[in-house]
Design a protein that fits this description.
Elements: E1 3-16, E2 19-32, E3 36-40, H1 47-54, E4 62-67, E5 70-71, H2 77-87, E6 88-91, H3 103-113, H4 118-131, H5 147-159, E7 165-169, H6 177-192, E8 196-200, H7 204-207, E9 212-217, E10 220-226
Parallel strand pairs: 3-8, 3-9, 6-7, 7-8
Antiparallel strand pairs: 1-2, 1-4, 4-5, 9-10
This protein binds adenosine-5'-diphosphate and magnesium ion.
Magnesium ion binds at residues 47-48.
């Protein structure tokens, strides 16, 4: 297995007054290229902290993070942002779309930071929206869409840079069952096309649709089950 992600002895520690919280407590894990992994665990167990570090949105207090074989735990903000742009698409529970922009403009945003010219940005955004079944709605604003449609826009935005890795923190957490399963079908199709997918969920029927389930408790991985 070629590990695209490897965490070695990762700690994330928060100090609040005189209490110390180990949000991640000696985490070791390897994730191979093309895996489809879900992370489960009770509220407060460290799932979001883990996803934010994996997704280069945050850095650990100590330990090593190898992404594509490169150690990035010590990267500064610019280096992390650059790495994230090049390799990772991140999907949030609350979609994080800009309400005043059309779906197409929302999806095109990451391409501005990547230095792509406007015509190509709009063309690639349109293609990404077509890939998630929203080709007819590229001019709609998030406020004119259902939750499931908004999350598909957010997935299109995560895909528009053609990242090798997709990460999602409770992407179906705000959706009804039917929309959740539609979103899972998109993640499955992305994984079938070769992308590595890592997602947090607290819903067993969602986790069961992935190939590997990691369970966290008190900042530690307490179970690692292949399916
Ligand atoms: N910015 C922060 N400051 C202080 N404590 C935090 C912060 N973020 C998370 N924590 C704490 O770290 C632990 C793990 O949180 P989190 O990763 O959000 O868990 P989960 O996503 O599994 O609910 C919790 O005890 C939480 O209160
Ligand atoms: Mg969380």
């Amino acid at each position: 297995m070629t590990a695209v992600i490897e965490l070695r002895d990762i700690m994330k520690t928060y100090i609040m007054g005189d209490s110390v919280v180990h949000a991640l407590d000696h985490v070791f894990v390897q994730i191979g290229r093309g895996e489809f992994t879900s992370i489960m665990g009770p509220s407060g167990s460290g799932k979001s902290t883990m996803m934010n570090i994996l997704g280069c949105l945050d850095r650990p207090t100590s330990g090593e993070y190898y992404l594509d074989g490169k150690e990035i735990a010590g990267y500064d903000d610019d280096e992390l942002a650059h790495t994230r742009n090049a390799k990772i698409g991140f999907v949030f529970q609350n979609f994080n779309l800009l309400p005043k922009l059309t779906a197409q403009a929302n999806v095109a945003l990451p391409l501005i930071y990547a230095g792509v010219d406007e015509e190509e940005r709009m063309e690639r955004a349109k293609k990404a929206l077509e890939a998630v079944g929203l080709g007819e709605r590229i001019e709609h604003k998030p406020t004119e869409m259902s939750g499931g449609q908004r999350q598909r826009v957010a997935i299109a935005r995560a895909l528009v840079n053609n990242p090798a890795i997709i990460m999602a923190d409770e992407p179906t957490g705000n959706l009804d069952t039917k929309s959740s399963y539609e979103i899972m079908d998109i993640f499955k199709a992305m994984n079938a096309s070769g992308k590595t997918v890592v997602m947090v969920t607290h819903e067993p029927d969602i986790a069961e649709q992935t190939k590997r389930i990691l369970v966290m408790r008190d900042g530690k991985i307490v179970s690692d089950e292949w399916r």
